[in-house]
Amino acid sequence: MNRFRIFLTAFAVFLTFSLTGCTTTQIETPTSQIYNSDELSINEIKNSIILACEGRDWRVDNVTSSYVTAVYSKPGMSATVQINYDATKYTIEWKNSTGSLERKGDTIHKTYNRWVRNLQLDIDKKLNAIKSRKFLTE
């Protein structure tokens, strides 16, 4: 019985370290180049960012001529990003996070990076859709 307890204790410690060790990762700050940017107005870029945020259930908090601030919340966690943009690129920067997404130095829960990558993909899709529509109507 004593060996069994030692085994269970060791196994519990192993599980705790293996599960918690894999949940944090380096924080990502993705930047996407906007190719053929002369085809897009700054307003189209801004609107693409806003539509992508709304499509992914990010709440758009602040919009200026050079950035959009958005918040994504789930029970027990939230993240705030600032999406800086100009005519040639955009960058999604971490601003704040709460709950299990709290930032620890340069690391954060891997869920944050997944949320940001998905947002980046959707922004790229919106921008490419506008460029495709313009190309087809020429």
Query: Helix coverage percent of residues?
Result: 40-55%
CATH architecture heading: 2-Layer Sandwich
Largest sheet: 5 strands, antiparallel
CATH class: Alpha Beta
Number of helices: 3
Number of domains: 1
Structural class comes to: alpha+beta
Identify the overall geometry. elongated
Mean pLDDT rating: 87
- Tell me the strand percentage band: 25-35%
Number of strands: 7
Q: What order do the helices and strands follow?
A: HEEHEEEEEH
Straight-line N-to-C gap:
79 Å
Report Rg.
Answer: 20 Å
Biggest sheet: strand arrangement: 2-6-5-4-3
Kindly identify the CATH topology: Alpha-D-Glucose-1,6-Bisphosphate, Chain A, domain 4
Low-confidence stretches: 15-20
List keywords for this structure.
five-stranded antiparallel β-sheet; two-stranded antiparallel sheet; single chain; alpha+beta; Alpha-D-Glucose-1,6-Bisphosphate, Chain A, domain 4; elongated; 7 strands; 138 residues
In short:
The protein is built from three helices and seven strands, in the order αββαβββββα.
